[in-house]
Amino acid sequence: MTIILATLNARFSHSSLGLRYLMANMGALQCDTEIMEFTIQMRPIDIAERLLAAEPKIIGLGVYIWNIDESSRLVAILKQVAPEVKIVLGGPEVSFEHQQQPIVALADYVMCGLSDCSFGKLCQQILCGPQPLMKVHPSDSTAITDLKLPYAFYSDDDIKNRVIYVEASRGCPFKCEFCISSLDKTAYPFNLEAFLAEMQGLYDRGARQFKFVDRTFNLKVESSIRIMEFFLDRLDEHLFLHFELIPDHLPEPLKEVIKRFPEGSLQFEIGVQSFNPEVQRNISRRQNNQKSCDNILWLSNESHAHMHTDLIIGLPGEDIHSLQQSFDTLVNLTPHEIQVGILKRLRGTPLIRHTEAFQLRFNPHPPYNILSTSTLDFATLQRLTRFTRYWDLIANSGRFANTLPLLLGEAPFDNFLALSDWLFTTTRQTHKIALAKLFEYLYHGLLTLFNLDKEQVEKLLLSDFKRSGIKGYPKFLGTTHSQESSRTTQTNRPKRQARHLT
Which residue, 92, 109, 142, sits at the end of a domain? Predict the structure, then answer.
C-alpha cells in the first residue's frame, strides 16, 4: 500500500473520524491509501512491524495528547528501520509550538490544524514532485461545503464494534481559553440534507450508537430539532445518541423534542467548568449561570436523558472554596455524572497568557496537567486529583447509588474530600482497588468519619452490594447479613442504564 493513514486510539472501541475525513478527500490517491488504527496499549515496535509489512511510501500519523508518548516512540523506530518512508504528522498535539517537540524533529512533514484536503495534495507532491520545500504546512483553508463526507469509510466491523463519531457542524463560536476550539472563528454547519443522507446510510448498515462531536450541538436550534426528529422517526430499543450541549441555551421547542426520547436513548455532555463569574471572565467564558442551572434541573426532572456534566479544577483564579461552591451547586442539580477534570495545557490555547499572573505551573510531560496555581498549591492539587479518581470510582460508576446521598449529605464537596483523604491515608492507592474491597473501605470510612447510624449504613451498602454483580455477601458486615442474604431469592435490579460513549 502506497499511503497509510494511522493513529493510536485510547482504546479499541474508539474510531478516528479524522482519518476517515482524510481518506474521503484523498482524490486520485484514495485507491492507494489504507486506514490502520491501533491503540496506546500496543507496543510501538509491534505497530511499526505491522505498518512496514504493508510496504508504504508515506505514513500519515494522527497525534493527540493521549498518544504523543507512544507516537514519539513509534516514529523513532520507523526512522531507524525504514528511513526512506516519509512520515507526515497531523493532529492538535503537533499543530502548535513545533520547535519544542522531539517527534516533529524526527518526522519529515507536519500538517497544522485542519488538513482534510491538503494532506492528499502533499502526498501527491511527495510521490510525483516537485518535492515540498517546507516541513511545516499551515492549516487547510478548504471550505466546509467542499469537503467530502467520511461516513462510508466506517467499515461494517466498525459499526458492529466501535463508537461511530459524527459531526453536523465544525468549530465553535465561543472563546473559552482552556479549549483548542477557542481558536475557531465560529461554528460552520455541514449541509443538513447531505448530512442526514449519510446518517441514513449508517443507520441502514446497522449503526445504532452515534456520538456527535459538535462542540455546540444546540447552537442552531432548528438544525438540532431536525436531527433529533430524524432519529426519533427511526427510534428502536438499540438507538443511542450522544450530544454536547451549551448549558444555558435550551429553548422550549428543543425541550419538547428532548422529552420524546425514552430512557436509555439519549445522553448529553454539558460543560459547566465553573459557576464562578470571576473565573469565567478570566478564561473568556460566557455563561448565564442561572439559566444553566435551570436547564440542568429541567433535564433532570423532566427528561429521560442521561446527563454527563463537567467541572474543571485549576482554572485561573479558582480556589478550593470556589470549587466547593461549584461542585455543591452541581450536585444539587442531580445530574447522573459529574466529571471533575484537572486543567490541562493544550498546545496553542490562549490560556498560557495567564501563566505569570496566576502562577500556573503545568506538568512538562503529557497530559500537561496543572500542578499548582496562585490559589491552589501543589499539595492541594494532589489532594484534588485523588478526589477526582475516587469520585469516578464511587459516584460516577453508579455502583453506590443508594449509599452516595448519605455520604454527601448537606456538604457534598467537604464530605467527599474528607472521604478521599481518608481513603488515600488508609490505602495509599488510587488505582487497582478491587470492587469488594472498595465496599469494605467505604463502610469503614463512613463510620469512621461521619456521625452516621451504623444500621442505616449497612442497609444502604448491602443494597448496593446486591446490585454490584459481586458473588456472595459482604464479609465485612458479618454472618448475620450473610444468612439473610442466603435466604433472599430476589435482588433489586438496576433500571436500564445509558450506554456511555467515551
Answer: 142
